[in-house]
Write a structure and sequence with these properties.
The chain is an alpha/beta fold. 37% of the residues lie in helices and 20% in strands. It contains ten helices and seven strands. The radius of gyration is 19 Å and the shape is globular.
Length: 260
């Protein structure tokens, strides 16, 4: 796919940042050492990490040059690396925290990825992860349904589904102490310019990217129209054009046994 669009992604900064802040608030005590923001994107959580761990190096890792340029502008990071987060490994000392907010859902093979990441943290360290758990909701199912209705079985390079909460618990609990939870955020999305459905604007910069990039400009227009018609039914607009958008997210904090 093409590079990420920081402006499109940043339309809903507050709604996207809140889960990261909630995860950060649950970290508890951790040993000294580097903090890795794995899949840091535009660096929205960087200032919060830097404020919480003000004497540590905050290291950002992402594969989007456009998003990393935004992250650099925050001034929160000691270093930023443009790298595939699926194959990243620490170049210096093992970090005390690997913090990943809304990034690892784009990667597959979590049965091997999560244990590998857990094995890279320093003694006493933590792996802290938040991922959207929204694929079964109308907001996400709607893109696939609209695409199939218009373009049949045309191939789309979609990201993999994440595992169930039970599967993550079974995967992680043998590795150490794990805390796992879900949160349903009832997000109030403001009215959008031009009459666009706010849920479309929220999803098009992330989950919908593979669908939108699989077609040409006229196809995108038809796809957006089809999707917005479905969203008008699934998420009715309020009188002011805003919408209440329920969004489900999955969290876990793992303190690996070998690190205690």
């Amino acid at each position: 796919m093409s590079d990420w669009n920081p402006a499109s992604y940043g339309r809903f900064t507050d709604q996207r940042l809140q889960p990261a802040l909630d995860l950060l608030a649950r970290l508890g005590a951790v040993p000294d050492g580097d903090v890795v923001d794995l899949g840091c994107g535009s660096g929205a959580v960087g200032p919060a990490l830097a404020a919480r761990f003000d004497e540590r190096r905050i290291i950002g890792v992402d594969n989007s040059p456009a998003m990393l340029a935004k992250a650099e502008a925050t001034g929160a990071y000691a270093s930023l690396t443009c790298e595939d987060i699926g194959t990243w490994s620490a170049e210096q000392a093992a970090p005390s925290i690997i913090f990943s907010n809304a990034a690892l859902q784009w990667l597959g093979d979590h049965q091997h990825l999560m244990p590998r990441l857990a094995g890279t943290v320093a003694p006493g360290g933590v792996l802290a992860v938040q991922m959207p758990f929204q694929n079964a909701a109308p907001s996400h199912q709607g893109w696939g349904a609209a695409f199939t209705a218009l373009f049949g079985n045309r191939a789309v390079a979609q990201g993999p589904d994440i595992l169930s909460p039970e599967a993550y618990f079974d995967l992680l609990s043998p590795l150490g102490d794990v805390s796992l939870w879900e949160t349903h955020y009832l997000q109030h999305l403001p009215a959008a310019p031009g009459g666009a459905h706010p849920v479309r604007l929220f999803t098009e910069s992330t989950f919908a990217r593979p669908f939108l990039e699989a077609v040409d400009a006229s196809g995108r227009s038809a796809l957006v129209a089809q999707y917005e018609a479905a969203m008008a039914q699934a998420y009715p607009l309020r009188s002011d054009g805003s919408v209440l958008f329920a969004f489900r997210r999955l969290f876990f904090i793992l303190r690996p046994e070998a690190s205690r």
